[in-house]
Every structure is written in structure tokens, then in C-alpha cells.
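Reviewers asked in the last cycle whether our approach scales beyond single polypeptides. To address this, we selected a multi-component target totalling 669 residues and predicted its structure end to end. The input consisted of the following lines:
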Amino acid sequence: MSTLTVPAGSAGSQAPSASRAPGTGSLVELRGVTKWYGNVVAVNDITMTLGPGVTGLLGPNGAGKTTVLHMMAGFLPPSRGEVLIAGEPAWCNPFVYSGLGIVVEREAVHGFLTGWDFVLASAKLHRLPNPEAAARRAIELVDMVEPMNRRMGTYSKGMRQRMRVAAALVHDPAVLLLDEPFNGMDPRQRLHMMELLHAMGDVGRTVLFSSHILEEVEQISGTVQVIVAGRLAASGDYRTIRRLMTHRPHVFTIRSSDDRRLAVALMGRASVAGIDIDPKGGLTVRASDYGTFTRELPKIALAEQIRVQRLVPADESLESVFSYLVGA
Amino acid sequence: MWGTTGCPGVVGRHYGGRVTSTPTRAPSGAPLIATQALTKRYPNGVTALADLTLAVSPGTVGLVGANGAGKSTLIKILLGLLPPTAGRVNVLGLDPALQGEDVRARVGYMPENDCLPPDLSAAEFVTHMARMSGLPKTAARERASEALRHVGLYEERYRQIGGYSTGMKQRVKLAQALVHDPDLLLLDEPTNGLDPAGRDAMLTLIQRIGTDFGISVVVCSHLLGEVERICDSLIAIDGGRLLRADRIENMTTSRDVLVVEVAEGIDQLETRLAGLGLTVSRDGRALQVPLATESTYDQILGAVAELDLPLHSLDQRRHRVAELFANGPAATTSTREGAHV
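The resulting structure, written as C-alpha cells, was:
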């Protein structure tokens, strides 16, 4: 399996604003990292770098996402290769924590603590000079000030999740790792968490989150790292990844004022591999060359005096890119 | 707990007319579920449902709402497991508070949480559930194997459930809800914990249950994209009250705004369209242009062609179900949701 890689910086979706990191380089770097448990290879020779902004970590169940996150956080040593956080190895290096926060998937919290106690404890464990102020700031960031004096046992899933994010953010880390942060959240909480991740990416934090809900990943970030069976299958902006899959025709659905005449005109072009006419109206066009087809179509339609009312790429979504990667 | 009284009819449909009084599926048009001023207050003073009036017609229906909005309470009342404090409720023409067993004989329920016995095989468990709903031994075994095949479990069904993946467990839960051939399925977060491929398979399966078997389905979900994909209509409840009930196509109607996306040169296009006198606004990677007349299409296409830009997409913007929740009183819900847990 080859890895589709988009050079860093071409993503374009994130504004590389004032980074807290010394130098503008990436804070998180994996070099040829392999992890095996006994005979099971969980992660196989992964090399990746993460820049500032939000990145989605995708892969089927059991692909090795959690193992990667745990190695970055220094919970696990790599069996081979290097995991570097701001240039320092993550394993056996407690200092990494001064610049890194992680929200793990297991949502175990002490139900008898209030949200405030929980975040404050995290601030004290980091030996912050002013733990109260830090805890307050983190709780404000996740918008949980009002219920912070209630016991966490009475919280809903979404509220617990936000408090856990606050605890991970209390020392203002430059790197934030989240394992399935949307699990169990309702629509409003999901929107809120998405905004939170967005905001953290915009101020130059390096945020990596794993998720199965591809529509949401698409809304938060175009930049993804896809792991399939322990290997890095693709990395970069998913739209650019799609362009690199040149062997797959690009499928578009088109609705116009005269579908048949448009089909005839398009069929003559080398960039078009095939056209289906939908009896209910509309065309499905398979284009072998994305760049040529998308430039030609407006001109052809204008020349034929056909009005194009709808042009929608059918397999450009993260969902289809992902299924191509996993299925390949 | 699954009632036995309603089962002759169930058997009759599948085993060749041995039973004459086969009740037909709910006549189309008549509501499957109807509630009137349904209210539920728990002894600790929490009001889970407040004056909820709704009618669910046959088809695939999405039930959405914030955590703590009252979805689980509603399901428990519909199944006759919890009596309402006030108001009336009617499921398939029956009153669950008085005829709970009859309701449960005709309704399949897939719970949200992990509730399967780890040391039984799926075949044993689903057969047991079939027998609980009153099927004779042989019929129960046949129906169980049929239901497991429908959900895509073949040889694995003889293995212990404890060793199953999340996706397989979800399928077993669905199979036990289907085994007594219900008229109505209640599915509580059926895609929870599934990866993209598993989700896709589960959604296709649910859609098929609705279209191929003609069983009405109520799906609780937090993923609005999912609801948009598989449901015909949607019921949103918030704080125990009805927020909105409508058909999906009415909630995703197109707006008079065109969205244009080009693979490169978006700045050029923006300037050019503005120069043509169009009101252009930026929305992420796309440009939005109000659709004044049909000629707006031609203006945009012309501009793209002149600038020689690759046109990625051009479409009318649609309303999304998510807009329901985009601007809600978030502060008030956070106090309520906690109180309910």
C-alpha cells in the first residue's frame, strides 16, 4: 500500500497564526514508528508530522489510532522508530506534559468530584503557579462555568466530555490530542465541540482528534491522517488526496436545461470517460481528467447555450475518499 | 417480558396462513404512534416530558433531541414500561399503559446500551428472545436464523457474543428486535461505536427494513446527517416538548442562494462576480450568490469560463436539519440535561 501524501502547507485551510512553538516547525513528529504487542503489529512504520491547526485522525476500528495517540502522549514506548514532541522523545519524558494535553476515550471520571475540583486537581498536578486562575480560564474556555460546582456524577456525557477537555487544557498546551471526543454527544454539544476545536486550531495549537463521523471531520478540518491496518494510508488535505487518485474517474452529477444535448457535446471530449442519462432527469458524468473536465464544462455549456443548473461532484467527499483508501 | 398474546398473528404471516385472523400492518395514513398532552414527571420532581403531542405516520422516522430531552422516557412509555403522569398515548392502536404486552408483541426494540449476555451464542440468544415472544421451539429457531441472516451474521452466530466486535453486537441487537416480525421497530442509537464502514452497512440495513419488509422504524440518533440520509420524516423534541415534526424534504428545501466552488482562483472569481453587480459572499471555500433570476446561472458560468477556472460545484444551497439546533438556548439546556441523568 502506498501512502498518498500532500506536502504540508498546501492544505491552506488553516491560518498559520502566531504559533506558540519555538520556530514554526511541527510540534509532533513520528519517524518510522512501529508498535507491536507480542505478535500483533498495531502500528507499522508510520512517519508523520503535524503542523499547527486541526487534523483529523481516521481509520477503521482496530487500525491503530488509539495506539498512535497514546505513543504521542508518552503512555506507550514505540517498539521501533521515534515519537518526538517539540523535538523531544515522548517516552520517559515527563516534561513533554508541560506542552501537551490528552483526552482519552474512556470517560472515567470521579463522580464525587465537582467539575471545579477535577480541573483544579489537574492544574495542581501540573504545578502551575496560579492553579485557581488556570482552572477558571480552562473552564471558561469550554463554557462550563455555570455547572462547575456540581458533582461530575450528575453531568451528562457532553458536559463530562467538556470538563475533561478543560482538564487537558488547563496548562495551555500547544499540543492537544483527543480520542473520539464526539462520542455520545447530542447535536448541540457536537456543534459546540466543533467550534471549540476550530477556535483552538485558529490560535495556532496543534490539535489531533480521532473520529468515525466523517461528515463532522469534513466540517472541522480538511487535513487528515488516515491509518489503515497499522499503516499510514494517506495524509494531508483530503481534497488534494482525492486528486492524487488519478486512476479513479471523478464522478459528477449535472442538471441542465438540455441534458441530452449536453451529453452529446461532452461525449466528444477526451476528458470524459462515460456518461449516464438518468431517466428522471440529470446526467452522471465520469471524468478521467479532473482539471481538464472542470475547465471545459463551463465553456462547452456556454457554446451550446445550455444552462447548467447543478454540478455536484459525487465522490469528492471525505466519506468517499476514505472508502477508496480503506478499500484499496 | 415480551408478551405472548399478540403472537398468533405474527406466526400467521410467516408460516403459511395456519392462523386465519392475521392482523394486517397498520393501515397507511393512520398514525403508528400518537400522543396527546403526554406528560411525565419523575418522583424527584424532574419533568421529562411536558405536554407532548405528536403523531408518527408509517415510514422511517428520526427522533432527535439533546441529551436529556426526553427521548428515552418517551420510548419507555411507548413500550409500556413506564406509566405516563398525564395525557394519552397510543401505539399501533393500543394503549401501552393498559396493553403493554400486546404492544411489545408487535414492537421490536433495540436498546442503546450493551445488554447482551456474553456467554451465549447469537443463535441461542435470538432464539431465546423469539421464544419469549411466544414462538414455538422450531419456529423460534428458524426465525432466529432468518433474522440473523438478514442482519448479516452467518457462521459467526454460533460463537459466543462476548467475543464479538461492536458492529456484530449491534447486529445481534437488531436481529432480536426483528425476530418476532414486529410492525414497528424502535432503534436507539443503532450506529453508536461503529466505524465508517460499519455505519454505512447498518444504515443500509435499516433502510432496507423500511423499504423491503415494510416495517416502520423509529430511529433515535444524534447524527443529523444520518437522519437526513435514511429517514422520511423527523421529530425533534427539546426539553420534553415538541420542537418540530416534519418530513425531511420539507426541512431540506433549497434556498434561493447559489453556492459556487472552484478548485482554484476563488479570489479572481469573487472580484469578477462582484464586478457583474452580484452580491457575493464568502462561505469557507465557496462563494454564495443570491439566485435572482435564471440568468444568474449563466452569469456565473460565463465568469468561470472567461477566467478559465476549474468549476468544482454549482448548486442551490439547501436547508439542513442541523439548523434546528444551530441557534438554540444552549444555556438553558445545559442546566436541564444534567438534572435528568
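Chain A touches chain B through 50 residues (CB under 8 Å). We regard this as preliminary and will revisit it once experimental data from Aim 1 are available.
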